[in-house]
Design a protein that fits this description.
Helices cover 35% and strands 22% of the residues. With 308 residues, the protein is α+β, with helices and mostly antiparallel strands. The strands form four sheets. It has a four-stranded antiparallel sheet with strand order 11-9-10-12, with helices on both faces.
């Protein structure tokens, strides 16, 4: 049997052949089970054709997080694997998610007894680090936020307390916790499903484009934002799909406006219409729409064009 895959993923020094694309059904199963199960045999059993590594990678990519992990019967090995994505080190054998065992903090080397389920929560900190973070000066917090191009809109009361922030580039406001921002979490509006990320030097104007793409027997729409000539974006997509697949890409329509207006318009359209899931891998394949909706989307874009 030929196993000639052209992409290899290097994970923890192990070469793994690229696994087949995820179907919508599989993603649904993953979405409803991963947060409760995490990396464990039960989850693996749901995807007999995939490796645990591949499953966890996918879960990570689509932003799934393990919830409390209150699961009986998790093995020590499974726990250590989960702990691998945190900064904590287990100093004793796992005895259950609610049984305290000795751990060490990888940041400050503090050792203490902790319940595994607490350490697997997103944003968990050791007691010493947590105390330190709690007494961060407002100045320190604001300096970090400033670097991330964010403005603090509520009082800072602790690194794991609720904090209202605003993204200066797109003016989006949301509740988060400082600890997440510190770990690099960005603006949910700009980063969620947009092939475009706000930068400090975000351009004044941008273009929202709609391409019709035909590859072999499949036809779909690609919506996206670019700050460069559309022609260049089209060539990029063509090469990303693979020139040998001979994709036919035609520009259906486009709207130009301020980058914030364009981001909003893309957001609206992507959330109004059902997304199209393509088996073809290419950069930007998360913002695809069904060809059946083309007329309606064109009308929407024309409307945006008049209002901008
Ligand atoms: Zn610590
Ligand atoms: Zn933003």
């Amino acid at each position: 049997m030929s196993t000639c895959y052209n992409i290899l993923l290097l994970t923890k020094g192990v070469c793994v052949a690229k696994s087949p694309n995820w179907t919508k059904e599989e993603i649904d199963v993953l979405t409803s089970n991963y947060p409760l199960l995490g990396r464990c045999k039960e989850l693996q059993d749901l995807f007999p054709t995939r490796t645990m590594e591949g499953i966890a990678l996918k879960a990570n990519r689509i932003g799934l997080r393990v919830l409390n992990n209150i699961r009986e019967g998790r093995t020590n090995e499974e726990y250590l694997e989960l702990l691998g994505s945190t900064n904590f080190i287990a100093m004793e054998k796992y005895k259950g998610s609610t049984v305290p065992i000795l751990h060490m903090c990888g940041d400050c080397e503090h050792e203490w007894l902790a319940r595994p389920q607490h350490l697997l929560r997103l944003g968990a900190k050791c007691p010493v680090c947590s105390l330190k973070a709690r007494f961060l000066s407002t100045d320190t917090v604001d300096t970090t936020l400033n670097k991330a191009n964010l403005t603090r809109l509520s009082d800072y009361t602790g690194s794991l307390d609720k904090l209202l922030v605003m993204h200066n580039t797109c003016a989006h406001e949301w509740w988060t916790v400082y600890s997440y921002i510190e770990q690099g979490s960005g603006c949910p509006k700009c980063n969620r499903g947009f092939g475009y990320k706000c930068k400090d030097n975000a351009p004044d104007t941008a273009i929202l484009y709609l391409f019709k793409i035909v590859v072999g027997a499949t036809t779909f729409l690609k919506l996206g934002i670019t700050c460069r000539p559309i022609k260049i974006r089209e060539r990029e997509i063509r090469s990303s799909i693979g020139i040998e697949k001979n994709p036919n890409i035609s520009l259906i329509t486009f709207v130009e406006g301020s980058s914030i207006q364009i981001l909003d318009a893309e957001w609206d359209i992507l959330h109004k219409y059902k997304k199209y899931t393509s088996n073809i891998k290419f950069v930007g394949n998360t913002e695809l729409l069904n060809i059946e909706d083309m007329e309606e989307i064109m009308k929407d874009m024309k409307l945006y064009g008049h209002n901008i």
